[in-house]
Write a structure and sequence with these properties.
Length: about 350
């Protein structure tokens, strides 16, 4: 059984299958609705229900209050349609020639980056270039209909192989497969590029970038894109991880260009790390160095708790909301749930 979803004010329509989230159905239909974490934590996919009824099979999403539900607000990444729906939500367009496609791909190479992070390099068909914006992600389409989202860590100008950073998650069916069973030349289907987290070319303001864990992947794509470009804005990048081993990519530690600064931050350094660098929460470290953010653009990628704390504190430090670009993601275990979009 399917239900018809109508978007206002555009009037665009799509169908959602029984048990499928409204957001997944929209993406499947080629409508790039606003979203980020896909776990009910970040409010990016919030939309207002004008007509119809929904349910949340996993209970009320953590980011949505009972009062907001009474006012008709819904989080589309978790909502299932009980009837036909009319929603107030507008698809977002991205600049350039970027278009969402479904393509076959082959695992070209696997590279262990740390004890719990694997780089998966995917080869796409060569008949047409895969165009994307630095910072975007793809969905891996699993045989049972579920999706797993991972950001491209490679820059757009190096698109012969897609580089994905996969963190092993306890209980994660797909990530366990990556670490235990995946072989080179394995075949998948992907859909993308997706997401609204990408480098804005039309600004000359200095930039602060903050990543938590494998939120580094889309930031790496952006940094390598900026590095090869003709305009080098001042960029200060903060990467927050638990231990020294989690700083898994030497490229960023060795990157040098005029105006670039890199600050790694460990939250739980081990004695054997012999760490003399910055410690604590990564977004608080950035604020210690830049207590007033009114003159900056900020790019933020990581788990929902980090992103939400940073959004709150950065706003208090004077950052205009329209200058904060963020990618918030959860790690999926089983079910149609959220995935690590980075």
């Amino acid at each position: 059984m399917t239900h018809k979803i109508t978007l206002k004010p555009s009037g665009r329509e799509f169908e959602v299958a029984e048990g499928e989230s409204v957001l997944s159905a929209a993406l499947r239909s080629g409508l790039n609705l606003p979203h980020s974490c896909r776990g009910g934590s970040c409010l990016s996919c919030r939309a207002q229900i004008l007509e119809g009824r929904i349910t949340y099979p996993r209970g009320l999403p953590p980011a949505l209050t009972a009062d907001e539900v009474e006012q008709g607000w819904a989080l589309l990444c978790q909502a299932r349609a009980d009837t036909d729906l009319t929603l107030e939500s507008a698809p977002r367009e991205v600049p350039g020639n970027v278009r969402i496609r479904r393509l076959p791909c082959r695992v070209q190479r696997l590279e262990r980056l740390s004890s719990d992070v694997m780089a998966v390099f995917l080869k796409l068909p060569g008949f047409e270039p895969f165009e994307f914006l630095a910072g975007q992600y793809v969905d891996i389409l699993m045989a049972d209909g579920r999706r797993r989202s991972f950001s491209m860590a490679n820059p757009p100008h190096e698109n012969e192989l897609l580089e994905l950073h996969v963190r092993r998650v306890p209980g994660g069916e797909f990530t366990s497969h990556v670490f235990e069973k995946m072989q080179e030349r394995a075949l998948f289907r992907v859909e993308g590029p997706l997401g609204h987290f990408y480098w804005r070319e039309d600004s000359s303001r200095p930039v602060i970038m903050v990543a938590g864990g494998t939120g580094y992947a889309p930031i790496k794509s952006i940094l390598q894109h900026v590095y090869q470009g003709p305009v080098h804005r001042d960029v200060h990048f903060y990467w927050g991880v638990r231990t020294r081993e989690d700083l898994y990519d030497p490229w960023v530690e060795n990157a040098q260009w005029n105006g670039f600064e890199f600050t790694p931050v460990l939250s739980e350094p081990r004695p054997e790390d012999h760490w003399s660098g910055r410690r604590g929460l990564v977004h608080e470290t950035a604020l210690q160095d830049h207590p007033v953010l009114s003159a900056y653009d900020v790019y933020l990628a990581g788990p929902p708790a980090m992103v939400e704390a940073a959004r709150r504190d950065f706003h208090a430090a004077g950052l205009p909301p329209e200058r904060l670009f963020f990618d918030s993601f959860d790690y999926a275990t089983d079910g149609e749930g959220p995935s690590g979009a980075a």
